[in-house]
Design goal:
Helices cover 32% and strands 22% of the residues. The strands form two sheets. It has a six-stranded mixed β-sheet, with helices on both faces. Strands 7-8-9 form a three-stranded mixed β-sheet. With 298 residues, the chain is of the alpha/beta class. The structure holds guanosine-5'-diphosphate and magnesium ion. Magnesium ion binds next to helix 1.
Amino acid sequence: MSAAAFRAGTVAVIGRPNVGKSTLVNALVGAKISIVSPKAQTTRHRLLGIATFAEGQLLLVDTPGIHGRQKNAMNRYMNRAARGAIVDVQAAMLVVEAGRWTEDDGLAYAALREAKLPCVLVVNKVDKFADKSALLPFIAEVTREREFAAVHPVSALKNKGNEALVKTLLSLMPESEPMYGEDEITDRSERFLAGELVREQLMLRLGEELPYSATVEIERFEEDGEMLRIAAVVWVEREGQKPIVIGKGGERLKAISSGARIGMEKLFGRKVFLETWCRVREGWSDDEAALRRFGYSE
Ligand code: GDP
Ligand code: MG
């Protein structure tokens, strides 16, 4: 008897902000390539996570959440990036939060139906339910009058249920040679990932409003023997925001920089020397030219 054929293909990861799409992609890839925080807008770009198994390879397209509000150029960019991910894929995961279905979940589902894609419903964060049977009415309600290829309750955070999910996803992929090498985990450059890790620290360490007014530009990314020398600029929209990012005596920017450096050293597997600055560019998040300069373009 011959072994089952290798399967490979692309899966879009769709859902509203904060349901755990990036956490799930990282768990399946086995490395932190996509940044995660409790705030919406953490993921602003489309990003490919490559997960290779003995039976096949999944190319997972992580996306900013699809949401109904389109306040400014940045929000429009993020919705475009999410909707664009549905093109040229073999299947989609609709990720939702266990026990909660909102209008934005409905929007994401509608976008997938329109694309006529096989859609796997991933009910994430089941670790929040001590009694798993409490999930059954939710799943019954959500799947009533909606079409899914399969339903998988998982905890991306605790890596529960992921094996069965991978099996289902691979079964939806065509027979194919692997498209990337076994050791490749993303299509994004180390330079891009470095900027994201600084932005993750902004999301985690700044209050409610400011992270949305900030972005990160990597000004320098150089190899120096075994180590990497990186210079990052945190761009904010107004002069008054600078002292908030920098903090008393520079403490906050120092903490941001050191948190990001630790993430980089783990991901890149080498020593990193990171310098971080804060500068102002008025109204960058609603300025198409500034958005392009900061990498927000398709
Ligand atoms: P995204 O916006 O959909 O990409 O969501 P993230 O991956 O950034 O996660 C949003 C928040 O939910 C973060 O605080 C995660 O730690 C948290 N989260 C993600 N997956 C799980 C899970 O399985 N269980 C729990 N309890 N929290 C999770
Ligand atoms: Mg995300």
